[in-house]
Design a protein that fits this description.
Helix content is 53%, strand content 23%. By secondary structure, it is an alpha+beta fold. It starts with a strand and ends with a helix.
Length: 106
């Protein structure tokens, strides 16, 4: 039975492209549909280019609504929420480290 689950995720920075492609593949294998909504913009997980553009232009100050539709949507929602938030947090830490290294080099 298909179910729909919605939750808010916070992306502190852009999700790395490689990680986004892994998440996209997981969604495709799962067979459901995921929608992301922020500031009246909505994108479906069915289009990788649109998903990539959306995540690169996301406003870090506003939450992103994630709507998961399909079999075992609750479980997939938790998996995706964790993956997106960890990816954006790890990316932010890498950016801060790179920034610190640039300041030290100067």
């Amino acid at each position: 039975m298909k179910t729909i689950v919605a939750s808010d995720i916070t992306l502190k920075s852009a999700v790395p492209v490689r990680r986004l492609m892994e998440i996209y593949s997981e969604i495709k294998q799962w067979g459901g549909e995921v929608f992301f909504v922020q500031n009246r913009r909505m994108v479906s997980s069915s289009s990788l280019p649109k998903l990539l553009t959306f995540t690169l232009t996301v406003d870090a100050k506003a939450p992103v609504k994630m709507i998961v539709e399909g079999q075992k949507a609750e479980k997939m929602n938790e998996i995706l929420k964790t993956q997106f938030e960890q990816s954006s947090t790890n990316n932010k830490a890498i950016e801060e480290k790179d920034s610190t290294l640039e300041m030290v080099a100067q």
